[in-house]
Design a protein that fits this description.
Blueprint (H helix, E strand, L loop, with lengths): L2 H17 L11 H9 L6 H12 L4 H22 L9 E2 L2 E2 L1 H5 L1 H19 L8 H15 L4 H10 L7 H27 L3 H28 L2 H4 L5 H5 L4 H24 L8 H11 L4
Antiparallel strand pairs: 1-2
Helix pairs in contact: 1-3, 1-4, 1-14, 2-6, 3-4, 3-9, 4-6, 4-7, 4-9, 7-9, 8-9, 9-10, 10-13, 13-14
The structure holds geranylgeranyl diphosphate.
Amino acid sequence: MGKLERLDAHRARMEAWLRNCFLEREPRGNLYDAMRYSLLAGGKRLRPVLTLEACRLCGGDVEAALPFAGAVEMVHTYSLIHDDLPCMDDDDLRRGRPTNHKVYGEATAVLAGDGLLTAAFEAMLAPGQALPPERIVLAAGILARAAGGAGMVGGQILDMAGEERALTLAEVEELQRLKTGALITAALEMGWAVAGGTEEQREALRRYGAALGLAFQIQDDILDVVGDEAALGKPIGSDARSGKTTFVTLKGVDGCRALVARLTEQAAEALAPFGGEGAELRALAESLADRQT
Ligand code: GRG
């Protein structure tokens, strides 16, 4: 199987799993419609693909990792819904469609985000999983820590504070490590936890995730300046409008491109303990360095 083909197969499996979410639930007004609206809006599925591939790399059962991969995508989707709200970034377009609150109203969008966050933990802790309980607890704990104040939500609060004053490079790196990097690294570590991998494998995935997460965010900052709105499915220029310090304001577009290239090499180097088997994650890092969406 080709390198990117394997990742495409993970993505297709994830898509099928997500499509089945909440179909059997007793309707609660339009709550589940709002949750499915954003969950199935066609994102890149980067984080769940990382979970599934990390699990395979560490010798685990990819099928058993699906609820964990789905959980990380649910947490990511909740963060996008809440981030787009008028009290946060106040965005009208996401993944090429009107944002959740534009379709369902603000109160339902808040609840759709809350519903997705809790559904993530419900999926991971569902009875009848073919996994040792300690692996389930480990993986759920990794996601909980990465999503909360010590990770993504903590990064978001630093980001808000950053709108009030100029930040240093070290401060921008720290806030992005939490806001974007923590969930990306957690996605990888969850795959490792489900597989019952070794400490050496965990450390390699962490180093890969740290480099990949930073490269991903720097590329995001570049695309906010030079990206194509139609391809991105959202307006560009939002960082400049809000007066935020970003990697681009600190290093310029060319400086940022050089940083992305360096971090992509570091990500590839971190995979050395996996030998040839790390080819898929290496290819993924390279494809993200060129991404236009
Ligand atoms: C809890 C409100 C709240 C926010 C947490 C992660 C986050 C902070 C907000 C999301 C908004 C944002 C632009 C974050 C930066 C990370 C990023 C580039 C997100 C977009 O991720 P992609 O490109 O999106 O993987 P798709 O649509 O492909 O899934």
